[in-house]
Amino acid sequence: MAEETEDRKPQIILTGDRPTGRLHLGHYVGSLRQRVVLQDSGDYDRVFIMIADAQALTDNADNPEKVRQNILEVALDYFSCGIDPEKTCVFIQSQVPELFELTAYYMNLVTVARVQRNPTVKTEIQMRGFNADIPVGFFTYPISQAADITAFDATVVPVGEDQLPMIEQTREIVRKFNATYGEVLVEPEPLVPQGEASKRLPGVDGQAKMSKSLGNAIYLADTPEEISKKIRSMYTDPGHVHLEDPGKIEGNTVFTYLDAFCEDRHFAQYWPDYQNLDELKAHYQRGGLGDVACKKFLGQILEEILVPIRERRKELEADIPRIYQILEEGSRQARSAAQDTLARVKGAMAIDYFADEELIRSQADRYGSR
Ligand code: TRP
User: Fold this and answer.
1) Does residue 304 sit in helix, strand or coil?
2) Whose CA is nearest to atom 8 of ligand 1?
3) 53 in ligand 1 pocket by Cβ < 6 Å?
4) E-assigned strands of the chain?
5) How many A from CA of 247 to the centre of ligand 1?
6) Is 14 touching ligand 1 by the criterion CB < 6 Å?
7) Going by CA atoms, what residue is nearest to atom 13 of ligand 1?
8) What number of other Cβ atoms are within 10 A of residue 12's Cβ?
9) Which of 111, 185, 232, 347 is 20 to 30 A distant from 84 in Cα terms?
10) What is the pLDDT of residues 195-208, one digit of tens each?
């Protein structure tokens, strides 16, 4: 726990994922490993990670079973990567109904035009081919996301770059709310992982994004056999046909992954012919270095990361009811935090009628009643 002093506002993290599939290496480099560092840093008073099932349902209304199954998968992935329920409150969005009340009030502060301008929403609408058939719930999810963030007085929201417009929209809602009703909500800052490599890990086929629908992802829960098969099939440089041919690094998935995961010590351990990645790249570009050797090296590095994750997952899988208990307890704690915020919000909007003695007294006076 970080130290509390009078002039310091509590530092609170809130972030989350939609439970629409198991988590993969892209999630690991882009968010999970950073979350563990943040959790363990001691810089934060509270850390909340939300499994956004209600948001997942905004475009999966016909498939609640998929969402239901993946809640457990995502929780197992979190805890096997080192998210520690003693330090981080992991909860399920739908179990905190206060979030939906906040959303309803925030909706009055946002115009349709503003949501339509949100670049993330724009892209997602395009990706899903929505027109006027867009579910209202999907269209308004940026507003619900503002509720997720503000309900916990989050100061810091770790997200990928694609989510920055969501945080911007949240900040606007906070400013609008505070200007209208008084200083109640906390304006959050986004936190994007540093370094090119952690921005976006391509799929094993070289496509820009790892995704379930493209079938090009390495999952944290994959077996060693599945992983070595995927690495062997990885996209490299199609012009690099013979060993002696010069090879290209740009757009070569093996090297993009090495950029994300390789450290100098890996060479000492697995491939002492080279000191560091620059030397390896230079050789590949010169010619005389094969893809198979590079892939084998990458496989060794990935195993180093994945073995402990896999082992922890096995242990966790031995007591699934315990995972649900942790999520239930997390949801209870999250709910209590959100209740405090909702009470402040309703107070500021003066819609807490029965707690408002002044209101009751003045109305009674107006009618000359007791
Ligand atoms: N929209 C996020 C995603 O698709 C998930 C999410 C929901 C979230 N609510 C949030 C992220 C609040 C950060 C803060 O990944």
Assistant:
1) helix
2) 16
3) no
4) 12-17, 46-51, 89-92, 156-158, 189-191
5) 39
6) yes
7) 15
8) 20
9) 185
10) 766 677 899 999 87
pTM of the model: 0.93
CA-154 nearest atom, ligand 1: 14
Superfamily of domain 224-316: Tyrosyl-Transfer RNA Synthetase (1.10.240.10)
Using the mean position of ligand 1's atoms as its centre, give its distance from the Cα of residue 197 in Å: 21
Beta bridge pairs of residue 51: 17, 92
pLDDT at 78: 98
- The region of weakest confidence among 52-61, 128-137, 231-240 is 128-137
Per-residue tokens: 357: 């003695």
**Does CATH place domain 12-200+319-362 in 3.40.50.300?**
no
pLDDT digits (tens, 9 = 90+) for 152-173: 999 999 998 889 999 999 999 9
The secondary structure of 67-134 as a DSSP string is: HHHHHHHHHHHHHHHT--TTTSEEEEGGG-THHHHHHHHHHTTS-HHHHHH-HHHHHHHHHHT-STT-
- The residues with which 90 forms a beta bridge, in sequence order, are 49
148 C-beta closer than 6 A to ligand 1: yes
pLDDT band at 306 (very low <50, low <70, confident <90, very high): very high
Ligand 1 touching residue 15 (CB < 6 A): yes
Return the domain boundaries, the chain. Answer: 12-200+319-362, 224-316
Average of per-residue pLDDT values in the chain = 94
